[in-house]
Every structure is written in C-alpha cells, then in structure tokens.
Amino acid sequence: MQKKGKWRLTVRRDFAAAHQLRHYEGKCERMHGHNFNVEAQVEGDTLTPDTELLIDFKVLKTMLGEILGGLDHCHLNELPQFAEHNPSSENLARYIYHELAARLADTGVSVHSVTVSEKPAQSATYFEE
C-alpha cells in the first residue's frame, strides 16, 4: 500500500513588543521589549489543481502578518488576549497558532506548529496532537 504524501510550508515574520512576566520574581517581571521572531508551519495533502500549490506563500505571510500586526509595538500585557495569561513566548505561540488556524479554516491546510523566539538562541514551539 502506497503512503499518501503531505507538504509542509514554513513562513517567518517578526514584530516588536513590550511585555512583563507576572509572578516571575526576577528582572523579566519589569516591563521590557523584544524583537520577536515567529515561524509558522502549515501542512496539507492536496495541491491546488491550477497552480499546484498547497497555499500561496504570499497568502500565508499576509495571514500571519495580520495576526502579528495586532501585537506589533504594543504592551502585550494590556491586550485582552493576555489579561489572564502571561504574554510569554509559550503563550504567544499558542495564541498565534489558534489565530492562524481560524484563518485557515476551510482551506484544506492546517497549522502544524508556531515557534516564537525572543532571542536567536531560544524559542518556544506550540503544536497540537
């Protein structure tokens, strides 16, 4: 029996924002900023019949850009989506994942994972099994 293949696409964008980690008990509890890097991976098993693309990179980058536009140059703690949860890299990745999944509904493409990094040497990845 032949296995069915899948495609996985990756796009990267960034945004700048301030945050403070509640209950951290260290200097990150004070407000500070980052240039966050975001990597989103999507996957699917069917290409479009005309252009043979899973989804146009431009469309995917636009979707991700719309999500990040709501976070860019903000104090993340003041946004409603982080009223109850710390705006940590982990929670940012989960938030972006769910926002992107909602935009991809009914496209035949699903979110595989979202990775957020505050610095090049560390990142947090969110995915669902």
Question: What secondary-structure arrangement, pairings included, does this model have?
Answer:
Layout: E1 7-19, E2 32-44, H1 57-69, H2 89-104, E3 110-119, E4 122-126
Antiparallel strand pairs: 1-2, 2-3, 3-4
Helix pairs in contact: 1-2
Binding site for Zn(2+): 19, 32, 34
Pathway: Purine metabolism; 7-cyano-7-deazaguanine biosynthesis
Keywords: Lyase, Metal-binding, Queuosine biosynthesis, Zinc
Relevant terms:
single chain, 129 residues, alpha+beta, Tetrahydropterin Synthase, Chain A, 4 strands, 22% helix, 32% strand, metal-binding, metal ion binding, queuosine biosynthesis, 6-PTP_synth/QueD, lyase
Number of distinct beta strands:
4
* The first-level CATH class name: Alpha Beta
List the domain count as a whole number: 1
Please, how many helices? 2
